[in-house]
Specification:
The chain is an alpha/beta fold. It contains 20 helices and ten strands. The protein binds iron/sulfur cluster. Iron/sulfur cluster binds near residues 129, 371, 373 and 374.
Length: about 425
């Protein structure tokens, strides 16, 4: 039999998922190499990683949040959670922390390789758990910890911008970046190079532009990617490879793939019936199955708050000024971490503004036991949304790490009932094409 000719669609459609998985594997291979040669590494978090500065010192970056979610997807989290709880950590604290403690107690052993020990940790106050989590590494390894204080908004919808007196008062963030640079110089024994920072920021700019274009392209019906599943792969690259040529190339390819799909109306499902927004953190212990509960009904997640707060600030498309790199990095950090905090605490206004442009039929809230930072307030956010707009919502609880509190049968029942209700709402099904 003659082999079928490959079409451009074979090469382009699905490329971002294949390349994303490969890049993440390569990243973990580098971490394994660093662990095996006892090389230095920096531990960071997704909200304000400052990968831009760490890259200037060629420090491999470890995102313990990403390590932990990988242990849940790969089904080793239950053992790690038990080990951390036996060690003394409470069952009700953030599961990411406990899985990481388990990995540290095992000398860095991880299902994707080996995690190097930290030489320093960098964090912001975007989540209060970050602060206590870094203290664990400080106690275990005696490393320096750089905590960057980012002043949040004072109330929902009060983000300020350059020129506003409140924003100008908050520019003190830049001094903390100078302290971070001094710490990196001390830890690595290398001098900071501002031209290297310019280069890294240039790559980060291209990635942020790409991320915004990709989010925008999902207004298309049918949706060109699933925010819950595909989106998580893109987030891995957005964080781990931020400011690198490989990250830049990945996002250029991703835009090309999504544009290709959009122009040809190639969706993620053979029949898209319901367009949904996901609010919260995914259910990693049953990641694929959880998504299938929705796709089996023709439901696709066209957007999510996760794509904002876990994207390392890329969602706003902030462009660093390469003539003024450090001040601009501080400004971008202030804007993006603030936005990340708002997308966890005050996401209701933003969700409301997405309903028409993305032709949304329903909003799914997924509060989780492990993460109070994201979950507290979701019930109030939902109440606000329902009072503002006639849009069906679903409120389902489980966890992003702990299988003991994930009831598949109960989730499925609630999700099925939600879709039965949606199917009966012919008015909603006729929402039609996305519009401004
Ligand atoms: S509490 Fe939530 S936001 Fe904070 S580290 Fe844990 S999962 Fe992340």
């Amino acid at each position: 039999m003659t082999p079928r000719q490959r079409s451009p669609a074979d090469d382009i459609v699905g490329r971002a998922n294949r390349d994303g998985a490969r890049l993440v594997r390569e990243w973990f291979a580098e971490l394994t190499q660093a662990a095996e040669s006892d090389a230095q590494a920096a531990y960071v978090f997704v909200m304000g990683s400052l990968n831009e500065i760490l890259k200037c010192f060629d420090l491999p970056v470890v995102f313990p949040e990403i390590n932990s979610l990988q242990t849940a997807v790969r089904q080793v989290a239950p053992e790690l959670l038990n080990e951390a709880e036996d060690y003394g950590y409470s069952p009700d604290i953030c599961g990411y922390v406990k899985a990481d403690v388990g990995v540290q107690l095992r000398g860095g052993e991880h299902p994707m390789g080996r995690i190097p020990k930290p030489s320093l940790a960098v964090l912001t106050n975007a989540c209060n758990t970050y602060i206590k989590w870094a203290e664990i590494w400080q106690r275990m390894y005696g490393i320096p910890v750089c905590t960057i204080d980012i002043p949040g908004t004072r109330a929902a919808g009060t983000q300020t911008w350059p020129g506003h007196p409140d924003f100008e008062n908050d520019r003190y963030v830049v001094e903390q970046l100078r302290e971070l640079i001094a710490t990196c110089e001390r830890v690595t024994g290398r001098k900071f190079d501002i031209d290297r920072l310019r280069e890294v920021l240039g790559h980060a700019n291209a990635m942020s532009r790409g991320w915004c274009q990709v989010l925008e392209l999902n207004r298309q019906r049918p949706a060109v990617f699933n925010a819950l599943t595909d989106g998580t792969i893109y987030l891995g690259v957005a964080n781990g490879l931020r400011g690198t040529p490989a990250g830049r190339e990945y996002f250029a390819d991703l835009v090309e793939e999504m544009t290709y799909k959009s122009e040809r109306r190639i969706g993620t499902l053979s029949e898209e019936r319901f367009r949904l927004i996901f609010v919260g953190v995914p259910c990693y212990p049953i990641f694929r199955r959880f998504n299938e509960f929705f796709t089996e009904w023709g439901g696709v997640f066209v957007h999510s708050t996760y794509l904002w707060f876990a994207s390392g600030g890329s969602n706003l498309g902030y462009q660093y000024d390469l003539d003024n790199p450090l001040a601009s990095l501080a400004e971008g950090l202030l804007i993006s971490v603030r936005d990340a905090m708002d997308s966890m605490f005050h996401q209701q206004q933003a969700i409301l503004s997405l309903i028409d442009p993305y032709a949304v039929n329903g909003v799914v809230y997924h509060p989780i036991k492990s993460c109070r930072t994201v979950s507290t307030g979701l019930a109030d956010g939902r109440k606000f949304l329902m009072a503002s707009r006639d849009i069906p919502t679903l409120f389902i609880e489980s966890d992003m790490m702990d299988k003991r509190v994930v009831s598949e049968a109960q989730l499925k029942n609630r999700i099925d009932a939600f879709f039965e209700g949606l199917s009966a709402r012919s008015d909603l099904l006729s929402i039609g094409e996305p519009r401004d």
